[in-house]
Specification:
The protein is about 70% helix and about 0% strand. It has a domain at about 25-80: Serine Threonine Protein Phosphatase 5, Tetratricopeptide repeat. By secondary structure, the chain is mainly alpha-helical. It is built from 4 helices and no strands. The longest helix has 23 residues, at about 60-80.
Length: about 100
């Protein structure tokens, strides 16, 4: 589980990354995003930030890869919190 210190770091680094992207300081933005991801590997935010940096540089396959990793994390969290498989919530089959 994340600590309040990590939460504060994420809360501060997220807008910092956005500002660096807007200023076209892509390498610095990527460094910040990597730091967030390294400090919080079980959260999606670092991967989303890395995706944002890649997207801003028109590196579409790379951005997609980062966003997909973030999606997998969010899906796993949803699965863990509900405790059900997607097939458990599928519509009933009729015969």
């Amino acid at each position: 589980m994340e600590t309040s210190g990590n939460f504060r770091t994420v809360a501060l680094q997220t807008p910092k990354t956005a500002i660096l992207i807007k200023q076209k300081h892509y390498q610095q933005a990527l460094t910040v995003a990597q730091q967030v991801d390294k400090a919080n590997p079980t959260l999606a935010i670092g991967k989303i930030l890395k995706g944002d940096v890649s997207l801003s540089q028109q590196k579409l396959p790379e951005a997609l890869s980062h966003y997909q990793r973030a999606y997998v994390i969010k899906s796993n969290i949803k699965y863990q919190s509900t405790g059900c498989h997607t097939e458990d919530i599928s519509p009933a089959k009729t015969t």
